[in-house]
Design brief:
The protein has helices at about 10-20, 65, 80-95, 100, 120-135, 190-205, 220-230, 245-250, 260-275, 360-375, 390-395, 415-420; strands at about 45-50, 70-75, 110-115, 140, 145, 150, 165, 170-180, 210-215, 235, 255-260, 300-305, 310, 315, 345-350, 375-385, 405. It has about 425 residues and is of the alpha/beta class. The chain is globular and about 70 Å long.
């Protein structure tokens, strides 16, 4: 039985926390939970997904978390490849539309940038990717500075510089007019409402200078598109290939990046499935399983040193967006049902850091829900508030009733908040 995202009441949380650890249970449909009582929680399969355990300041991977046990992995996407792709997509658009992109004719191609979480590796990479492609990046500590700049209409900000693009013999200045972390008053980052408010402020102050809107994700990008840039005809670029953003390309949304969520969601659960079955981790991934599920090398890479699977990204533009209109469709090469006699039903605890996150709740979770049936996994989906780790960890009071765990942290630094529970 699928359990949808829901915030539990305090009474339910207390009852859950007091339940006996290590017991063998069945779900509401009677699916067996065999083997749970024989495996210590610290030895159960664990997949970190979407938010890689790492230092939010330096980006250094938390290898202690990634090596929590022999069946621990990370599943995400190639952030640097995707970031470069997003930046290139924006630059290509400018060059192809140079005759009409400079709205006020001042010779400056001005863009604004919505930054997600300044401590998130993916957000950092995307900001760097855009600035690198547009020539506005400034090196800091060996990398392109990813700090928000506030307002920079005069080009004096130190964290960025004016770039240039030469098209048809004419040189244009490229300037990051403004950028900020989209963080609301309650502390939630990647906040779409905050992005909508920001574009309102920016457009009121220097609207005719804004030629391009760029966002670290589609949730914020669509908020700005609907609030201002759609009516103004200003191309807006996001990331994630959410269904609404893909559909909006027909209405002027400039483009987005598909991080192959269909492949990521499959890998998230497939790695757990393989560990639970005691088979090689590559089964049904790089090596076909008995049902014929297998991924080709052009959609993912595996980094053994980082114990991480990365889906590869694809640019979605006006030329190919119709191929991406259904963001929750399973990836056909890995869509075959597993035999339950060889892969019996097992219970998985899985959390989404923010139940309101557009990409995770509207794209990633529906994909997970499609794959969990195919992989014979009974998954309990837990939704967080996007702000505090305890809102999630409080609902991991009885890990003994699960066979495996898939964790999406609020902050990439906080892996120990979960492993400390599993180590008890």
């Amino acid at each position: 039985m699928k359990k949808k995202l829901a915030l539990l009441t305090m009474a339910a949380v207390m009852a859950f926390s007091l339940a006996a650890c290590g017991s063998t249970t069945t779900d509401g449909g009677g699916a067996a939970d065999a083997g749970t009582s024989d495996v210590a929680n610290k030895d159960k399969p664990l997949v970190w997904f979407n938010r890689q355990p790492s230092n939010s300041s330096t980006g250094e991977l938390d290898m202690t978390a990634l090596n929590f046990n022999e069946d621990t992995y990370y599943v995400g996407f190639d952030a640097n490849q995707g970031a470069e792709l997003q930046g290139t997509m924006v630059r290509d658009y400018i060059e192809a539309n140079i005759d009409k992109i400079d709205r006020n004719g001042d010779g400056v191609i001005g863009y604004v940038l919505a930054i997600g979480d300044i401590g998130h590796n993916d957000s950092i990479a995307r900001t760097r990717g855009v600035r690198s492609a547009l020539g506005t990046g400034v090196e800091a500590g060996g990398n392109v500075n990813s700090d928000p700049i506030g307002t920079n209409t005069d080009g004096s900000a130190s964290a960025v510089q004016d770039g240039t693009i030469e098209v048809n013999g004419t040189t244009y200045t490229v300037r990051e007019l403004a950028s900020q972390e989209m963080k609301n008053s309650a502390g939630a980052t990647w906040d779409a409402a905050t992005a909508g408010n920001a574009i309102g402020t920016w457009s009121s102050s220097f609207g005719d200078q804004i030629d391009i809107v760029v966002s670290n994700n589609d949730g914020m990008g669509m908020s700005m598109f609907n609030a201002w840039s759609k009516d103004e005809g200003v191309p807006t670029f996001g990331y994630d290939a959410n269904a609404d953003a893909v559909a909006a390309i027909a209405e002027g949304y400039g483009g987005t990046i598909s991080q192959h969520a269909d492949v990521q969601a499959y890998l998230t659960l497939r790695v757990l499935r393989n560990a639970l079955d005691g088979v090689d981790v590559d089964t049904g991934i790089g090596t076909a399983d008995e049902a014929g599920n297998v991924l080709s090398e052009d959609v993912y890479v595996y980094n053994a040193d980082e114990r991480s699977y990365y889906a590869l990204n694809v640019a979605v533009t006006s030329e190919n967006y119709q191929d991406f209109t259904d963001s929750t469709k399973v990836y056909e090469p890995v869509s075959k049902q597993l035999d339950e006699s060889a892969s019996p039903v097992k219970k998985v605890w899985l959390n989404i850091y923010n139940a309101s996150d557009n990409f995770l709740s509207s794209t990633y979770q529906p994909l997970l829900e499609n794959y969990d049936d195919l992989l014979n996994l009974d998954v309990e989906y837990i939704g967080g508030d996007g702000q505090t780790e305890s809102n999630i960890t409080n609902r991991l009071g009885n890990p003994g009733q699960y066979d495996a765990f898939a964790i999406n942290m609020v902050k990439t630094d906080n892996a120990a908040s979960y492993t400390s529970i599993l180590s008890q």
